[in-house]
């Protein structure tokens, strides 16, 4: 089974930046579509960004477009989320997730934005943005 471990969360002031990492073991990420999600108390888990090996596509939630960037390093078997111009509303626990590319071949697929499409999840890392 794939194991995912997030890191890089912390406390920053509004306008600052953080870079999150998701290190994978047990499987190579080249055969998975990877997603980042976030969750706050009382809300459903929310899609943030996705990246697919199948076609190299990426997708972003409207709320983070232009501020966040998802990328992957196959040599390190790691997925990243660079977060710039952070806002207090970005405060959440951030999770990375993996879906077989045969199920989600493109990050542009509507299925890439649904938590139920993903089989494997990390433990989450807290991001807190102060005003």
Task: Offer a concise description of the structure.
With 131 residues, the protein is an all-beta fold. Helices cover 0% and strands 49% of the residues. Strand 5 and strand 6 form a beta hairpin.
List the helices and strands and how they pair.
Layout: E1 3-7, E2 10-13, E3 18-25, E4 32-39, E5 46-52, E6 58-60, E7 68-73, E8 78-83, E9 92-100, E10 120-121, E11 125-130
Parallel strand pairs: 2-11
Antiparallel strand pairs: 1-3, 3-8, 4-5, 4-9, 5-6, 7-8, 9-10, 9-11
Give a structural overview.
With 131 residues, the protein is an all-beta fold. Helices cover 0% and strands 49% of the residues. It contains no helices and eleven strands. It has strands at residues 3-7, 10-13, 18-25, 32-39, 46-52, 58-60, 68-73, 78-83, 92-100, 120-121, 125-130. Strands 2, 4, 5, 6, 9, 10 and 11 form a seven-stranded mixed sheet that branches. Strands 1-3-8-7 form a four-stranded antiparallel sheet, with no helix packed on it. Strand 4 and strand 5 form a beta hairpin. It starts with a strand and ends with a strand.
